[in-house]
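Chapter summary example.
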Amino acid sequence: MSTNQSLVLLNEMATFVKVVESGSFSETARQLGTTPSAISRAIARLERALGTRLLYRTTRKLRLSESGQQVYQRCLDMVNAAQAVMESSGQFHVEPQGIIRLSVPKAVGHFMIHPHLPEFLERYPKIDIQMLLEDRYVDLIDDEVDLALRITEQPSGGLMGRKLIDIDHLICATPEYLEKHGIPTHPHDLKQHECIYLGEQISDSKWKFQQGNKSISVTVRGRYAANHTGVRLSAALQHLGVASLPYFVARHALQQQTLVQVLPDWDFKTYYSGGLWLLYPPTRHVPPKLSVFIQYLADKLAAEPTLFKFK
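The structure predicted for these 311 residues follows.
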């Protein structure tokens, strides 16, 4: 494609970005003050020029083709670059605005992210937050998500982002439970205790511990398993057993000594530990609304240096 042809299609490229972001031709037409048929013709011109199908359209939704995903990222770079030019021109200041769709694991969203959002919304009155609390894997393009928080040691390839903090887990119980049933001094002692674990798969009942170079795996049992951290926290506080919990969920109870850490000399290892990463699709120019949100979260979590430390 020649430079002249590319310049002619700049409007179509920007329209394509709008269609992907809004999810429909009619909504894009409303935002741009035109008709759905005009939007459809613009997309058709772009597809003809590129020689590829960009969108699959059904009666209910639009879906990007494989090539459409790549073209969308390039076009988005173009739109963001144009925005950056306008902001750097000094003629006017663009206040961060728009909707941020944020995918977050349920417990992380409830206990860690939500408490900081009211201040952010007050600080940036033109930004709206749509937080999607879900533990499933989210495809940022297909699910139309701007940012995703994931607990992982190795972020998915093809995404950009930054590590915010480390997520640690521990096991804990109430002083009342331990007084009645005894305090475990070795991981194997847990076989004699009621243990409250995740219970989503068989491996969740195999608790792993490490002390220096020594690793131990113990198969625990208990009458209560729950795949919600808030429920396991509540069960532990009701003296039902020794619970596995992320530290950020248990920390207030630990500080108030309504829960105490069990086996503090051993590191509790779990598949659900790792770094908390904030990820987004690759782009040369991060929109202002995302830039300020990413920095805000990073600053808030960094301001609590003891939040994820215990023992």
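To summarize the output: The first strand starts at residue 55 and ends at 57.
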